[in-house]
Amino acid sequence: MLSSSGPSAKELREAMVGRLRGEGAIRSAAVAAVMGEVPRDAFVPGSALAEAYGSGPVVTHRDEAGVAISSASAPGVVATMLEQLDVREGHRVLEIGTGTGYNAALLALLVGSSGFVTSIEFDDDVAGSAREALSRTGYAVELVVGDGALGWDASAPYDRIIVTAGAWDVCDAWREQLVDGGLLLVPLRMAGLTRSVALRRDGEVLRSESLVPCGFIPLRGGDAVSEQNVWVGGKDGDLLLRIDDGAPVDAEAAGRALEYPGAAVWTGVGFVMPEILDFWLARMSGFCRVLISRDAADAGRIASPLFPWGSMGVVSGGTVAYLTVTADFSQIGVAAYGPDSQELAEQVAAQIGAWNADGGPRMTVSVEVHPTGTHPRPDSWLVLEKKDSTVMIAMRGGDLRQ
Ligand SMILES: C[S@@+](CC[C@H](N)C(=O)[O-])C[C@H]1O[C@@H](n2cnc3c(N)ncnc32)[C@H](O)[C@@H]1O
Description:
Layout: H1 9-23, H2 29-37, H3 49-52, E1 58-62, E2 68-72, H4 75-85, E3 92-96, H5 102-111, E4 116-121, H6 124-137, E5 142-145, E6 158-163, H7 172-176, E7 178-190, E8 193-202, E9 205-213, E10 228-232, E11 239-243, H8 251-254, E12 262-266, H9 275-281, E13 287-292, H10 294-298, E14 310-316, E15 319-325, E16 332-337, H11 341-357, E17 364-371, E18 382-385, E19 389-396
Bound molecules: S-adenosylmethionine.
S-adenosylmethionine binds next to β2, α5 and β4.
Subcellular location: Cytoplasm
Protein name: Protein-L-isoaspartate O-methyltransferase
InterPro entries: Methyltran_FxLD (IPR027573), PCMT (IPR000682), SAM-dependent_MTases_sf (IPR029063)
């Protein structure tokens, strides 16, 4: 008897597009058309068809420690970013982080024969595989090996620049190689919070048009800036603090926070997705992300975090606080451990209350990127001095309260 061979690549691709439309990741006919056409399986040749057209990223390269250094991003992320980038026929596009070459192929189709796509990859091996896949499938992309932090001057200027690796800074070259009025799309880390930010160039300033939460393999090379990792309770302890922007932290004192009894303060505020509350709390000194051992939370050793990975939190001296939630998700609270647990939990809870009173989930966040050293706008909620840029984050809510 013949066994069924399962759905074809074309059927799986159509199903993927249908799913992404349903989830709202694909919103335009143009993105639906190109994602329905480019064979994603050809760019991840070692993977089964079901994985190639599944919902997750496909890791293709790892370093010696087993850490992922290249992947085909999850289709939902690819689609969302293409929608943010708003690519038109005839555009000149620069992609930073070729990876498998899949997104470069989508871009090549979007710009058509009157446009031009350049893609830069840092890693020789990764670039080699992408080059093969692109030539096998026949998509016209100028592929170069180099550090994308410098852009690619030879084919500039660009109407669109898309960075597909996590960046800590907005490099000068990206702004300089973008036409005035053009869009730069970058997964930007701000106080440890990564957002895919679409930034429109207006002279020397870049202003956000959309922000979408995301996670990305970090950019390598000269511009790589890593977060500080502080274990609480020893290596592989129950909590891992991720602190960005070189903020000072007493790692030794914070590492002992779980030796003290905990405190919890409830806020009366319902569970919310973190997009806007995160930025509100990011102004607190010691703001960080707290990665939490699932086992420890399930065993009741520590309070449950807001999300499966953990929660945003604050470290102050030897005390660590993070957001928690009731079992029925009806109310956010703050759990804290350390010598000043009650006090820090109350401080963070007060901030959540203030956020809620000021518009809560109805607030909006916008980002402006200026050349480094620019005097901050007075309405900035948060100002982050990077190497090449000054990032100003504004939060607005008052006008929504009328
Ligand atoms: C998430 S993958 C990109 C996915 C890709 N766009 C695709 O469609 O498969 C990130 C890629 O960025 C590359 N990368 C990291 N740092 C880079 C840099 N400084 N310049 C260029 N590429 C870089 C990595 O080697 C990796 O291949």
